[in-house]
Amino acid sequence: MTFLHLADRTRRALAAVRQAAVLALVLGAALPAHALERVTLQLKHLHQFQFAGYYAAVEKGYYRDAGLAVQILEGKDGNEPERNVISGKAQFGVGSSSLLLARLAGKPVVVLGTIFQHSPYVLLVARRDGVKDLRSIIGKRVMIGSLTDELTQADELVAFLKKEGIPMSSTVRVDHSFDPQDLVDGKVDAYSGYITNEPYFLDSIGFAYDVFSPRAAGIDFYGDNLFTSESEIARRPERVRAFREASMRGWAYAMNHPEEIADLIRARYSKRHEREHLLYEARQMVPLVQPVLVELGYTNPERWRHIADTYASLGMLPANASFDGFLYRGDTPLYRTWPFRIAVLGALLLIGATALQFSRLARERRRARETIRQGERRFRTMFEEAPMGIALIDSSTGEYKDINPRYAQIAGRSFDEVISGSWTDFLHPDDAAGAVGLSPGGGADAKTTARLVHPDGSVVWIAMSVVAVETEAGAHPHHLCMIEDVTEKKKSEALIWQQANFDPLTQLPNRRMFHDRLEVEIGRSRREALRTAILFIDLDHFKEVNDTLGHHQGDVLLIEASERIRACVRATDTVARLGGDEFTVILSGLDSATCSDVIAQKILDTLQAPFVLGQEQAFVSASIGITLYPDDATEVDELLKHADQAMYAAKGAGRNRFSYFTPALQVAALNRMRLTNDLRGAVKGNQLRVYFQPIVHLRTGRIHKAEALVRWQHPQRGLVSPLEFIPLAESSGLIVEIGEWVFKEAARWVRQWRSQHHPDFQVSVNQSPLEFQRDGQGYEHWFAHLQELGLKGSAILVEITEGLLLDAGSGVTDKLLQLRDHGIQVALDDFGTGYSSLSYLKKFDIDYLKIDRSFTRNLAPQSSDMALSEAIIVMAHKLGLKVVAEGVETAEQRALLLRAGCDYGQGYLFAPPLPAAEFDAMLKAQLAIADGARR
Fold it and tell me: What is the DSSP string of 536-573?
């Protein structure tokens, strides 16, 4: 450089100094405030934790402190940051290691700092056969980067596969969808993704996959890099430096506060990812960013050389390519830096420093006073507008020193009323006695709930926090009291507790509360060596009331019954409703078992009185089971089980009585349970048998019909009576399966007897109310089965009970019509013993009446049973019905029935129920006799 050139540069520098001095003297010591400079940061992907540091720098004000207003734009493709930064649309961008390719292609991009010290890019391979093998992708469809966008980091995976001996030509590469579901659905076998992102989705659905990282083969690329353009550095070096420093501050904050930034992303930028997904990403980024080991933004030229060599091995760069100027260095010529200019300006300003010092100090004092006033205004505004009540209280006297409007509003009084009183004046008397003390030495800093009493006597629940406030030495101690109105919350809690522990209909304790109280009473009885009795009460005939008068009237009856039961016990005893028509009573503190007898009988007597339900009267009784602690059991569940067993014993003994638990009841219950369990396998185990009892035409003496009766041949117990196992089948629901089996057996035999004995032979099968009343299931499968066998519906007759007609809703009526339409006849079994009326015979399509054996047993010429039987027969014939008399055991009974006009007879006079083979032999014998008579 020549002396003239040096002199010229010196003159220019001195001129700049003189201009700065003149400017400083004109403007004075106070520099004008500058508006924030607007800059744009272009991301390479959509918003997620991958860019957390930039969001943090905005939120925490780091960019603002640097004089910058930063706009952050999402990216739609990997090439967008480079494209927008070079064009000037964005001043800064986020790019991958592919920026090196752009630089060496002549694009003026400059890396300002590296965020990801290791690339998150990995290859995810579906684990199809449980073996981890990268070579399994050969010949398979793979998604590795975009086929149209070169800046999607496919290069490092391509280098990785090449190094592992798997050239891209050996795979079927398809364009990337960036949807990991394609890997799950088997559309591809390998998928390039971020270790921070896609595994979260795959793990959440339990998809098996293997991860292959290029780092395992020594290919260690940088991940995200912050970059700008050469022109931005040349024109605005200070802005570049400020943006970089603020960004790194943001990254330091984000890596230390991941949960806060995750919430920020969802609140301000995107709800595309769940919070847990963002936090997963944050955890996975720690080993990639290495914020503890490596200074954020640090970039190593040797690592870039490694990346360049890798690109060279792929033929994407020439060997030993130079990338000078690619990495940002903060050192600019001294005369172009702000520190230099500020130093020059500072030196000149020292000339006038003394003159301006006092003016500056005065301004600072005014500014400080204004700041204090503004702070006081802000505090007062917050105090006045706070959503909770706040009061400052003198700890020594309890007097209010200041309150905000919300405090007076919650207290239900004016400001003057509250401020003139003491802080306990408005508390409920029960709460004032235990109120938190305000003395500095005790009771300070506490939280509690209490009640405030309004002038009209109403009560408000408050959540109250009392905190000691530091005061100057010698001054009275003070406390800050903060209150919130939680009345509605308390009401909700009380309602929830009520609903959880009390029956909504009767307001009695429910099952849960009953269990809790029984536990308490057992503990008390154990301590005091007393007895506790549990009464299990079930209302008799309640279902009939519910079915005939409706559920509303049934509820009225239950409420009245609960009040009657409660009136029979002491105030200290517990009456509970377990559900339906079941009640329980806990009689505690008994010194003998006889006390429970008196109360149980009193309950039975009071429940027998009629219940007035609107215009109707209803009569019910009760069956009560009683068990005693500690005589019968010591555990709650055992006591309840025993009481339930005793109640069923009372029902079985005729109802309207009470029964104590005995060990025999437990044995019977165990037998029922075991027998029920055995019954579950009876059909599949081929243990059931169908017996047939003949139904004889009384005038001719011929067998025209038979009733199918089920028997159980138990492998150990032998033949089990239907009276024993049919109730178990009904209570367990097995009756449906058994009924279907009986129908099919009856159909099989009636087809044989129609072909061999008489074309109109008919077999009747019994239908339990549980079978007949099944919702949503008719007799279509019966009709289909009969059609398969070539039988008409008239081959089968269905026997139902009178009780079934009591609940003859539309479902029962429809099924009766369905049977009639397909030719299947219906018989009303045990007629005369139930609750049916003559209107049922007129209303429903009944074909046969079966006179109950209780009438037949005592038939005599002038007996009332004979008169009733004759009346039934005459009535049936008038209605076009046939009559079958059950229980015919003597020739005299047969003669009387025949003389009365009865159509059919069934009983031991003709034959007991017989196995199918024996019944078939009887029919053959009858046929042989008839043939002999004709000859």
Answer: EEEEETHHHHHHHH-HHHHHHHHHHHHHHHHHTS-TTS
| Cα–Cα distance, 710 to 799 (Å, whole number) | 14
Residue 442 predicted with pLDDT over 50: no
Q: Please tell me whether residues 442 and 310 are part of one structural domain.
A: no
pLDDT given at position 269: 93
Conformation bin of residue 165: beta by default, left when phi > 0, alpha when psi is -120 to 50:
left
Read off the pLDDT band of 151 (50, 70, 90): very low
Domain boundary among 629, 661, 693: 661
- Other Cβ atoms less than 10 A from the Cβ of 747: the count is 20
Reported confidence tier of residue 419, pLDDT bands at 50, 70, 90: confident
Task: Let me know whether 636 and 779 are in one domain.
Answer: no
How confident is the model over 487-521, as pLDDT tens digits? Answer: 888 888 888 888 888 999 999 999 999 999 999 99
Give me the domain span that covers residue 349: 1-18+337-385
Q: Same structural domain for residues 697 and 577?
A: no
512 shares its domain with 562 = yes
Contacts of 90 (CB under 8 A, 6+ apart): 40, 41, 42, 73, 81, 84
pLDDT, one tens digit per residue, over 858-874 is: 888 888 889 989 999 99
Task: Transcribe 72-116 into DSSP letters.
Answer: EE--SSTTHHHHHHHHTS-SEEEE-TTHHHHHHTT--EEEEEES-
Q: At 147, which CATH number? A: 3.40.190.10
For residue 219 the two structure tokens come to: 């290919």
Burial class (CB in 10 A: 0-12, 13-18, 19+), 912: exposed
510 and 481 within one domain: no
